[in-house]
Amino acid sequence: MPKLKSASVQDLKRLLDLYPVSSLREHWPDIKGTKEEICLTVAGKRNIGEITQFLDDYFSCCKQHVYIYSHETRLSSLVPIVLRDGELLVTCPHSSIHST
């Protein structure tokens, strides 16, 4: 079963909380309130298709960052060979790098 479909409302809320409130309000302009209230309302509706679309559209706004402090001198790619406990949600047609 896909991870988002089996996620609790609190898990979905925490996922949405990674994004700025401006992105949430832009995608869901009809939902008013604080960031926490918007996240809870969206998560409570459990519209996984809409949430997945939001995650895809606003991925660049996510507050999760990867920092590389050093690497091997022969590093040819930053794409991991194996992703543990991940799930491919959407394939980006513009890139050879995929997010899970």
Note the main attributes of this structure:
single chain, 100 residues, mainly alpha, 5 helices, elongated, disordered C terminus
Write down the Rg: 16 Å
Count of individual beta strands: 0
User: Which stretches are poorly predicted, pLDDT < 50 over at least 5 residues?
Assistant: 94-100
* Topology order in helix (H) and strand (E) letters: HHHHH
Question: Which band does the percent of strand residues land in?
Answer: under 5%
Count of runs of 4 or more consecutive helical residues: 5
Silhouette: elongated
Report the average pLDDT across residues: 79
Percent of residues in helices comes to 40-55%
How many strands, which pairing sense, and closed or not: the largest β-sheet? Answer: none
What is the CA–CA distance across the termini? 15 Å
What structural category arises from helix and sheet content?
Answer: mainly alpha
Describe the protein's topology.
Blueprint: H1 3-6, H2 9-16, H3 21-27, H4 35-45, H5 48-57
Helix pairs in contact: 2-4
Description:
The structure is a single chain. This protein has 100 residues and is an all-alpha fold. It has a domain at 3-61. It is 40% helix and 0% strand. Helix 2 (9-16) crosses helix 4 (35-45). It starts with a helix and ends in a 43-residue tail after the last helix. Residues 94-100 have low confidence and may be disordered.
Question: What is this structure, in a nutshell?
Answer:
The protein has 100 residues and is an all-alpha fold. It has a domain at 3-61.
